[in-house]
Amino acid sequence: MTVLALVATACGDDSDDETADEASTQEPAATAPSAEEPSDDASAPATEPDSSDDETTAEDSSPQVSGTVEVFSWWTSGGEAAALDALFATLTAIQPNIEIVNAAIAGGGGSSARAVLQTRLGGGDPPDTWQTHHGAEILGQYAAAGFTTGLDALYREQGWYELIPAGLIEALSHNGDPQMVLAGVHRGNGFWYNKTLLDGQGVSVGDTLSVDQFLSIAADLDAAGIDALCVGDNGIWASAELFENTLVGVIGPQAYLGLWDGSTSFESPEVKNAISIYSQFLDYQNDDHVALSWDQAVSKVIDGSCAFNSMGDWAFGEFLNANLEEGVDFGWVSHPGSHGAFVAVTDGFTLAVGAPNPDATIEWLKAIGSLEGQTAFNQLKGSICARTDCDRGDFGRYHNWAMDSFGSAVIVPTVVHGSAAPAAFQQALNDAITVFVVSRDVDALASELAAAARASGFGG
Ligand code: GAL
User: 84 and 205: one domain?
Assistant: First the structure.
């Protein structure tokens, strides 16, 4: 099981805005590993001799390539599509003769796309490149099955071993060979709110929010006839994400990490307490949640028809896409109780074994791994760069807050986005949550998760 190690990220000064200091005010995580020196990793091959020319763009060094590249993803919401377009524009600026085929399939979290992909891979009809996550997903589902091509040579050529934290690279490497190129790193445990609505109710959210504080606010909003939580779980993963974030927030990042090595039981009192609190959260969600997608739930925050939304920071892209101003029209805080954790949801792309257009695909991978590509993409997507040389000045308040959190919080993996546990467990979680939102049976959910953990080879 690969669990992402804590790694430091982008350079620059600490942000000084008032909402940005949550991470720095949290207890220094005694258990958090210290920042790694990326190049100290013995497994990291040496990079090319340093040209000392960080300004060199891929365009300067790339011979022109033609052909098509089929890019498979699930980035179809307003914010996601805008960010994907920024990657396409980066590639086109470098390689104008490459035709891009956008094979995106709607359904947040890849709820529809991943099944289609599996069918194509199994049938020997891979897209040239597909979106995936670090950990169990890339390693267990794709690399171990022989669907992905090792990218060590490209990492060396592009100098990525020196530019991307070693912990991240390790979490996407099979036998020491990287299997994907990262575009960015999302923080999954975001809690987004309509600031105007809350101001109107006399509610102000501080740098952190505890479970009790949220439940008290939610009760007040409920009394005023306002839904506290906006949820869109026509893809059940969105409610599973609400649960995952609540689990991290209630049991804390260290106990949460223990779920994946069996040292924390899914049937422990602390997990059952987290499930009970999740059930209380569900009491405050909008009645039409099953009819909505995750981004439609964010739209309800945007238009003020409910107050908060628990979601990874791809939600930021939706606020941006709707021309809302960060810290003015909308605000953010960590999901209740989870301020000491950074739930890492990485986004990267592969090179398929048997890719129809390997040369064009390599150019695509160079583009998304480039400074230009990552800067343009992450500004719109809400994630932070995987590269450590992105300029903090190119990003606003939220991004700087997330960078601080990445550098100081305990980084934990997500089940909902494929990294913490095998696909079978991820599916079992989704199935159990589908039942739970109706049954509210705490013991049943705990024992189903415990059984699924045992079936997947971890957990007691
Ligand atoms: C995640 C992905 C994010 C975002 C989200 C919602 O799995 O890593 O980039 O797209 O799904 O669709």
Answer: no
What confidence score (pLDDT) does residue 453 get?
Answer: 98
Task: Determine the atom of ligand 1 nearest the C-alpha atom of 107.
Answer: 12
Mean predicted confidence (pLDDT) in 99-121? 98
Q: 181 and 317 share a domain?
A: no
| CATH number assigned to the domain comprising residue 285 | 3.40.190.10
Is residue 229 classed as helix, strand or coil in its secondary structure? Answer: strand
With the most atoms of ligand 1 within 8 angstroms of its CB, the residue from 4, 72, 73, 75 to mutate is 75
**DSSP letter string, 406-453:** HHHSEEEE-TTTTSSS-HHHHHHHHHHHHHHHHH--HHHHHHHHHHHH
The reported pLDDT for the residue numbered 307 is 98
Instruction: For residue 441, give its domain range.
Output: 190-337+421-455
pLDDT above 60 (res 20): no
What's the number of domains the chain is made of?
A: 2
Report the nearest-CA residue for atom 7 of ligand 1: 109
Evaluate whether residue 7 is within a structural domain.
no
Beta strands in 138-202 (DSSP E): 173-174, 177-178, 181-187, 190-194
Compute, in angstroms, the gap from residue 108 CA to the centroid of ligand 1: 6
Identify the residue whose C-alpha is closest to ligand 1 atom 12. 108
The pTM of the full predicted model, rounded to 2 decimals, is 0.89
Contacts of 136 (CB under 8 A, 6+ apart): 1, 2, 418, 419, 420, 421, 422, 423
* Atom nearest to 133 CA in ligand 1: 8
Tokens 């960078």 belong to 403
- List, for residues 114-172, the tens digit of each pLDDT value: 999 999 999 999 999 999 999 999 999 999 999 999 999 999 999 999 999 999 999 99
With a cut of 50, say whether residue 246 has pLDDT above it. Answer: yes
Give ligand 1 pocket residues (Cβ under 6 A): 74-75, 80, 108-110, 186, 314, 345, 347, 417
Rounded CA gap, 302 and 283, in Å?
21
Alpha carbon of 40 to ligand 1 centroid (Å): 31
Are 235 and 320 contained in the same domain?
Answer: yes
- Which tokens hold the place of 361? 């695909």
Between the CA of 135 and the centroid of ligand 1 the distance, in Å, is 15
Residue range 264-302, pLDDT digits in tens: 999 999 999 999 999 999 999 999 999 999 999 999 999
Same domain, 227 and 320: yes
In this structure, is residue 371 part of a structural domain?
A: yes
Q: To test ligand 1's pocket by mutation, which of 234, 310, 417, 426 has the most ligand atoms within 8 angstroms of CB?
A: 417
Cα 314 to middle of ligand 1, angstroms = 7
